[in-house]
Amino acid sequence: ERCSPEPRREQQREAAGPGSPPGPAHGPGALQDILSEEDEQDRVPLQKLKLLGESEELRNLLLNPHLRQLLLAIDQAQDKSSLLRKFMQEPLFVEFADCCLSIVEPPEKENVLPE
After folding, report:
1. Closest to 8 (Cα-Cα) out of 41, 47, 35
2. If exposure means fewest CB atoms within 10 Å of the residue's CB, which of 16, 74, 85, 110 is most exposed?
3. How many whole angstroms separate alpha carbon 91 and alpha carbon 70?
4. Which domain holds residue 49?
5. Is the residue at 52 inside a domain?
6. 90 within some domain
7. What domain count does the chain have?
8. What is the reported pTM?
9. Considering the domain boundaries, does residue 8 fall inside one?
10. How confident is the model over 27-36, as a mean pLDDT?
């Protein structure tokens, strides 16, 4: 249970002033900022997010400098949603997204006969 809502990143940036650079995306509160957004409908449990760090397949994908550049561009973009739409046309980014989704939401076994 939450007693009081966490301020959103935009509110924190506005409070810091117009000349202040945004904090690091992977600072101590960054994960809480993502997980506490009230308008977020789909939430992934922290345990499943930790599985991303344990995936050898994901680590191998992240060795690709082009993918790393795409992810950095998204992280630094002002309009993340339009950039994401553009990157979803890139096969490498789609492979990355599919890999992440298969880790946090493994596909259900289909057409399996009961024993």
Report:
1. 35
2. 110
3. 12
4. 43-104
5. yes
6. yes
7. 1
8. 0.57
9. no
10. 53
Q: Tens digit of pLDDT for each residue in 58-99?
A: 999 999 999 999 999 999 999 999 999 999 999 999 999 999
Which tokens sit at 52?
């991303």
By residue count, the chain amounts to: 115
Which are the contacts of 40, defined by CB distance < 8 A and separation ≥ 6? 34
**Contact at 8 Å (CB) between 49 and 56?**
no
In this structure, is residue 48 part of a structural domain? yes
User: Closest Cα to residue 67, out of 56, 55, 59, 79?
Assistant: 59
Q: What is the 3-state secondary structure (H, E, C) of the chain?
A: CCCCCCCCHHHHHHHHCCCCCCCCCCCCCHHHHHHCCCCCCCCCCHHHHHHHHHCHHHHHHHCCHHHHHHHHHHHHCCCHHHHHHHHCCCHHHHHHHHHHHHHHCCCCCCCCCCC
